[in-house]
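Table S7 (text form). Paired inputs.
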Amino acid sequence: MSHAFLSESTHDSSPTVIINTRPLERAAPLSTHLKEAGFRVVDMPMLTLKPRVVSEADIGLMQDWLSGSYDALVIVSPTAAASGLAVWQALKKTTERSTDDLLSESKTLYPSQPPSHLIAVGEATASVLQDTKLPFSYQVLQPMVANNEGMLAMPEIKRLQAGNKLLIWRGLGGRRLLVDTLKARGVHIDSIAWYERIQPIDAQANYQQWAEQFIKQNTSRSPRFVQSQAPKPIVVISSGTAFEHWTDIVEQAQTNSAMASKSIILPTLTDFNYVVLGTRLANIVAEKQLHYWQVEDLSPTTISAAIKQDRLIEIKP
């Protein structure tokens, strides 16, 4: 008899498993909070952040920003903040080779006044900027809600119109609501992609190892049926790219011959519930008829509160 995966259990007292798919660099605060809230947490990153080669065009955009060519700089993540600041520091060191010949350039790289509004998408990103000793003092602005919609509601973004310029520090890919909305107003937007998000090389093996162990630990066998003794695991998905990687891994595991030889049926996408960020990602998950909670930011308290309120959106076939 093959081991079936799991069915929904509403009366089980065992702790719910939450799979945190965020990159390792960003996973710890959420995992720690969820463990303290009584959940069993599995860190299973679906993304790893790979630095990109800094191009001459990137350096040119940095120098343009520092010379005051932009009305605002938006930094979308802690990694983007750290990468941009590191390049800025490297540019400063370059100027130190000849203070006479490069005096003008040095003033550009370390101006005495803020070159533009500085907007951090979220507390973690703001902390990276605030912990850095910048050559001038100014406020790091944040939206009320740490997402694209929250940024669009900020006065500093609302007032941008045709003729204004915005620079974004980001990773390759990602959501485009902010960019598309501002471009429709005629705002000129440039961006520097400091890193790209790729699938970790061990993601498939880690998933299959976890799934096999979970099934063995949470199933009871009888001559007539096999039923899970645990509620559905919950998967935290923070981006479309992470969901694509998760989908690929779960579906590839279905064809694993080693699992088939052990008479173990690995789970499908519908054997999980999901926590997803924003409407766009919720729509993607809903199209696959998956059950989910939608959150508007990725703070640990927001995610745990959504799960505990038990307002799961169930998509009927």
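Next pair, protein 2 of 2.
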Amino acid sequence: MKISAFRTIILGVSFLVLLPACNKLSDLKNQYYVSHAEAFPSEGLASHAEHRVGEPGSHKDQNHQVDHHDGHQDEHRSEHHGAHKIVVTTPVAKDVVSTQQFVCQIHSWRHIEVCALEGGYLETIAVQEGQRVKQGDLLFKILPTLYEARLESDMAEAQLAQIELQNTERLFEQNIVAQPEVALAKAKLAKAQAKVNLAQAELNFTTLRAPFDGIVDKQHEQQGSLIEEGDVLTTLSDNSTMWAYFNVPEARYLQYEASPDKDNVKVELVLADGNKFPHAGTIGAIEADFNNETGNIAFRGDFPNPQHLLRHGQTGTVLLSRVVANAIVIPQRATFEILAKKYAFVVGDDGVAQQREIVVQSEQDDIYLIKDGLDVNEKIVLEGIRQVRDGEHVQYEFQAAEDVLRSLKYHAE
């Protein structure tokens, strides 16, 4: 009896513990059948769910939730369509400043290496790194002792030759020697004088002076260093005018040469910090040969540098700007791209949208200059491009091109 009573108590406690879990499982099954009744009405799941609920008002509550969910989806769907209305505008013809950008390397128009002309010990360094110098200023001096001694020796030889010539001329006047003896004495003197000039030049080479106004660069040797002929001591840059070299693709080179107003192209320089250099430049030269590996040709822009802001070796961006008269302009976001070709939807008078390929002449921040494919009398889809299909009739709102251009902010989709 005690064992039977104990089993009864255990079964009762287990039932009380498992009862909430069973009720929860039943509710989950009912929700499963109701949700599938909405997605698959043809499978008869709704009636099965209603049979499984088995409680008054349960199926009604579920239907109320499904209806509320459908209504919310319909409301969201209508708001979604309302937010993506189709807007149409027209291309516009206007004078546009077309600007092309090219990365450039900036060089001084005169930039040389200052090299030792003779070997020896570096006795004097008369300038500091980064110092501005004038033409003729002393830069370096090599210990001249050896060259001074050589010069004195050659000068003595020249004096000896001069005395011998004078003696020979006196003897010639006394008819003691013949004319050829005088000629030999003169030749000997000329040779000695040439050695003096050579020794003087070698002595002068020990003193290095600035060949033009400029800025001294890093010093490669220190005072007291033993240097050899040809060693680079420093570099000197004349930054009064700067040359900016940039590479131009062949197609743009041909456009530049074919332009009737190429001499009126505005040349500007943007520095590494994003600011424009205050002085405009000119196209100074175009190199003779194309680079066969890159297909580019080098242009050179010349910029005055009165404040010496630019230095040799800087980088920047050259801007070539010219005015394109009556250019056909459209927003970039009115176009789309398929396989590297650009298209726009053109809406006819019948309201039918037709996909059309366009050829872009150049691009700016948020507009395209059209070379071929559109004219100002046509309408193009501006917003809602993703909702339009080729050959489809569309309902749209029209927005004036002037208003569109004033508020452009975005690129093409």
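The helical segments are 2-39, 45-53, 58-83, 145-173, 179-205, 250-258, 401-406.
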